[in-house]
Predict the structure of Peroxisomal biosis factor 11 gamma.
Amino acid sequence: MAVVTGLASALESYRGRDRLIRTLGYCCQLVGGVLLEQCPARSEVGTRLLAVSAQLSHCRTVLRLFDDLAMFLYTKQYGLGPEEEDAFVRGVSVLSNIADQLYYPCEHLAWAADAKVLHVDSARWWTLSTALWGLSLLLGVASRLPRSKRRALEAQMRSEVLTLLSNLADLANAVHWLPPGVLWAGRFPPWLVGLMGTVSSLLSVYQAARAGGQTGAGDQTEAGSSP
């Protein structure tokens, strides 16, 4: 019953619902991709799971239409960062916030083009939004490395390491979705994309549950949601 209550509580919040949709979507892509490649007899099930994954991803894209204001308020609140923070970390975090802020309108334009609301090339805007997401992840990785070194004896290190691993998993997928010719772009099979996304999502869910257990709060303090 405690598990059901916790799940219901998570689904009541926007951020909790987004994490669960993201996790479920990537799990469907992981299992569906494996079934298509390894179990020809179950290929139809695999195709259906990939279709579910695609629809859940589209659902999250639509929900992100309302994330711009939250991201703006977060960026405004952070400003140039706390003075006690390392100058390098503050600079990288500011750049990461700018990349996140630009990511949303680019994705909105890509969505609007696919929905035939705007007559523009959606591929160009999807590429730009993915590049901004990848840049944000890369900056996030860079900012957490010095943090982990300075706080090696503090409890914060575990959270930083988990976030670092989550960012790296997402970064692997972000590069995969860039135009062919950029590193390993386009080379991941569906199951590997699903695996990277599942790892990232489960780490995020674990951190949220851990933070909620420590503070008694529902959502973590964070802006928008990642793809």
Q: What stands out?
A: Residues 66-189 form one domain. Helices lie at 2-12, 14-38, 43-63, 68-78, 87-114, 122-150, 156-176, 190-215. The chain is about 75% helix and 0% strand.
